[in-house]
């Protein structure tokens, strides 16, 4: 080193453009970290209370009322003759959802065949499904039984509804027989 070349001083090192940029970035990140720890998170509003469970057999016409567009917002669909309350999955089955075509309807054929299309059939007799499609519908039914509450049965034309006697949904078809046994 020659005498004219001086060693860089600490000040020279600190004031280099690269080091100034790095220090600004580090100070900004430290500020964000400290700020995030000192700010108190605002509590989330409590979730809305769950809707009361319903236990009722319905015709296809009655089921149409539960497509998520009514005042209550409840979404029901039928699968293999069983009506499920899928309101918890409203983002899928409610208005605007990918499976909204099934809301308030018998979804057996659509889920079994993989065709998500609206159907205006009052009561769909799915006896013409292939064995693979029937198996697919059964798999969907198993998944729905695990995730959603069962409301009741989808009534065939002319079929009478079952009377449910308590909150657990126990059937009470012959109340008189029960009274006679006592």
UniProtKB/TrEMBL annotation:
Keyword list, A-Z: Membrane, Transmembrane, Transmembrane helix
A GO CC annotation given for this chain: endoplasmic reticulum
Keyword Membrane: yes
Ranges where the Cytochrome b5 heme-binding domain occurs: 58-155
Transmembrane segments: 14-31
Gene3D superfamilies: Cytochrome b5-like heme/steroid binding domain
Protein name, entry field: Cytochrome b5 heme-binding domain-containing protein
């Amino acid at each position: 080193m020659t005498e004219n070349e001086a060693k860089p001083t600490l000040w020279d090192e600190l004031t280099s453009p690269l080091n100034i940029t790095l220090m600004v970035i580090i100070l900004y990140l430290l500020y964000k970290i400290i700020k995030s720890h000192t700010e108190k998170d605002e509590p989330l509003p409590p979730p809305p209370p769950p809707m009361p469970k319903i236990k009722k057999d319905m015709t296809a016409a009655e089921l149409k009322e539960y497509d998520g567009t009514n005042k209550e917002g409840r979404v029901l669909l039928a699968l293999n003759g069983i009506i499920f309350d899928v309101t918890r999955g409203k983002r899928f089955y409610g208005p605007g959802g990918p499976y909204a075509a099934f809301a308030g309807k018998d979804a057996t054929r659509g889920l079994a065949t993989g065709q998500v299309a609206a159907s205006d059939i009052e009561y769909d007799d799915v006896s013409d499904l292939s064995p693979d499609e029937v198996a697919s519908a059964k798999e969907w039914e198993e998944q729905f039984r695990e995730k959603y509450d069962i409301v009741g049965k989808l009534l065939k034309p002319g079929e009478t509804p079952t009377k449910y006697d308590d909150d657990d949904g126990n059937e009470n078809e012959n109340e008189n027989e029960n009274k006679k046994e006592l």
